């Protein structure tokens, strides 16, 4: 939409806000909006607007995966304050038991060990950037966001997501080239950090971005695919450290190297659009696709399983490439 600039006084320029937009966000004279300066313009946001977004939920009787879903839901949606109710007599296992492949990490090998619910909740809250427990009673805790979200924080966190994925690709390739799966024992820790920054990006987009913006929708999709790529690397790490033969992975080395090259190229392309890099990404994909049947003829079962995960990553990169091209228009 277009708005005419109106001159008021000697040095002041103003524009009017669309009436439908102001009604939807309950804006009226005297209320405040945030102005976020970007390279190509000025973004007007209703973020905060003097109000605190609050909610509460009760985790009594929930299992760990369900509790994770509730925490992620309120966090990503951008709630400023959350009250979590619980049964003070209850206990649970480590909150990370169902979040990661804990079996190949010594810290999570104690099966069946349960701790008090308040300790478990501290583990949940620590997983989310900016969330802190500010109050707890006999049967509840109150969580609040500490700090302020900005577009700069989004940019920094998104770049961190990319760098963590590149780290996963590099370490996976090294483990395959050296036949040393122990190099991947900490991969779930890397994936946890990736998930933390992914959720933080989603939270920022939900709080300060225009949800109807086409570019914002594309960023949501990018983040979703990047998280899925991280999960595939975690699956590869689990396979290689959980009994897969690491002595015969010679047939998988080339595809692992090509996938790493794809990720490095996409990272560069995301921040600096370049037609030449698009052509390079397409050539790599063709190379892996054309060698698919030859690979399966000579590969062992373990190699085929790893190859499957790497091909999924390649497909996700192709989907990311389509999104990045669309962002240019």
Task: Detail the topology: elements first, then pairings.
Blueprint: E1 6-8, E2 12-14, H1 19-24, E3 34-38, E4 41-45, E5 54-58, H2 64-77, E6 81-85, E7 91-92, E8 115-116, H3 117-126, E9 131-136, E10 140-145, H4 151-178, H5 187-208, H6 214-241, H7 253-271, H8 275-290, H9 292-298, H10 301-327
Parallel strand pairs: 5-6
Antiparallel strand pairs: 1-2, 3-4, 6-10, 7-8, 9-10
Helix pairs in contact: 2-5, 4-5, 4-6, 4-7, 5-6, 6-10, 7-8, 7-10, 8-10
Describe this structure in words.
The chain is flat and about 75 Å long. The chain has 3 domains: 21-51, no CATH class; 54-145, Translation Initiation Factor IF3 (2-Layer Sandwich); 151-327, Methane Monooxygenase Hydroxylase, Chain G, domain 1 (Up-down Bundle). With 329 residues, it is an alpha+beta fold. It has helices at 19-24, 64-77, 117-126, 151-178, 187-208, 214-241, 253-271, 275-290, 292-298, 301-327; strands at 6-8, 12-14, 34-38, 41-45, 54-58, 81-85, 91-92, 115-116, 131-136, 140-145. It has a 4-stranded mixed β-sheet with strand order 5-6-10-9, with helices on one face. The chain has a two-stranded antiparallel sheet with strand order 1-2. A two-stranded antiparallel sheet has the order 3-4. It contains 10 helices and 10 strands. Helices cover 54% and strands 13% of the residues.
Spatial order of the strands in the main sheet?
Answer: 5-6-10-9
CATH homology group of the largest domain:
Phosphate transport system protein phou homolog 2, domain 2
Q: What would you call the shape?
A: flat
Radius of gyration: 24 Å
Number of domains: 3
- Could you say what the CATH topology of the largest domain is called? Methane Monooxygenase Hydroxylase, Chain G, domain 1
Measured as a percent range, the helix fraction is 40-55%
Report the uncertain regions: 99-107
Class based on secondary structure composition and strand pairing: alpha+beta
* Strand composition percent: 5-15%
Query: Please, how many helices?
Result: 10
The secondary-structure element order is EEHEEEHEEEHEEHHHHHHH
List how many beta strands DSSP finds.
10
What CATH architecture of the largest domain would you give? Up-down Bundle
**Mean pLDDT, rounded to whole units?**
85
Alpha-carbon distance between the termini?
17 Å
> Which CATH class of the largest domain is shown?
Mainly Alpha
């Amino acid at each position: 939409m277009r708005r005419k600039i109106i001159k008021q006084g000697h040095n002041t320029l103003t524009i009017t806000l669309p009436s439908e937009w102001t009604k939807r966000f309950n804006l009226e004279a005297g209320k405040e909006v945030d102005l976020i300066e970007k390279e190509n313009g000025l973004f007007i946001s209703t973020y905060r607007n003097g109000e605190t977004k609050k909610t509460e939920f009760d985790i009594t009787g929930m299992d760990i995966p369900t509790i994770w879903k509730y925490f992620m839901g309120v966090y990503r949606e951008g709630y400023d304050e959350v009250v979590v109710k619980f049964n003070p007599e209850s206990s649970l296992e480590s909150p990370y038991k169902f979040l990661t492949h804990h079996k190949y990490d010594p810290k999570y090998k104690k099966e069946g060990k349960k701790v008090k619910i308040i300790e478990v909740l501290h583990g949940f809250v620590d997983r989310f950037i900016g969330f802190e427990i500010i109050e707890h009673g006999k049967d509840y805790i109150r969580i609040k966001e500490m700090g302020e979200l900005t577009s700069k924080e989004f940019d920094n966190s998104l770049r961190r997501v990319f760098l963590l994925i590149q780290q996963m690709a590099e370490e996976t390739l090294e483990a395959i080239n050296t036949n040393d799966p122990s190099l991947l024992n900490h991969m779930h820790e890397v994936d946890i950090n990736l998930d933390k920054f992914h959720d933080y990006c989603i939270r920022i987009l939900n709080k300060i971005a225009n949800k109807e913006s086409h570019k914002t929708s594309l960023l949501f999709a990018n983040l979703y695919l990047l998280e899925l790529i991280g999960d595939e690397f975690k699956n590869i790490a689990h396979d290689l450290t959980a009994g897969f033969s690491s002595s015969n992975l010679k047939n998988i080395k080339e595809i692992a190297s090509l996938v790493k090259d794809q990720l490095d190229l996409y990272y560069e392309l995301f921040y600096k659009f370049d037609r030449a890099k698009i052509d390079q990404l397409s050539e790599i994909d063709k190379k892996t696709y054309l060698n698919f049947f030859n690979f399966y003829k000579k590969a062992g079962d373990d190699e085929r399983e790893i190859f499957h995960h790497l091909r999924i990553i390649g497909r996700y990169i192709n989907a990311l490439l389509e999104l990045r091209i669309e962002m240019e228009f």
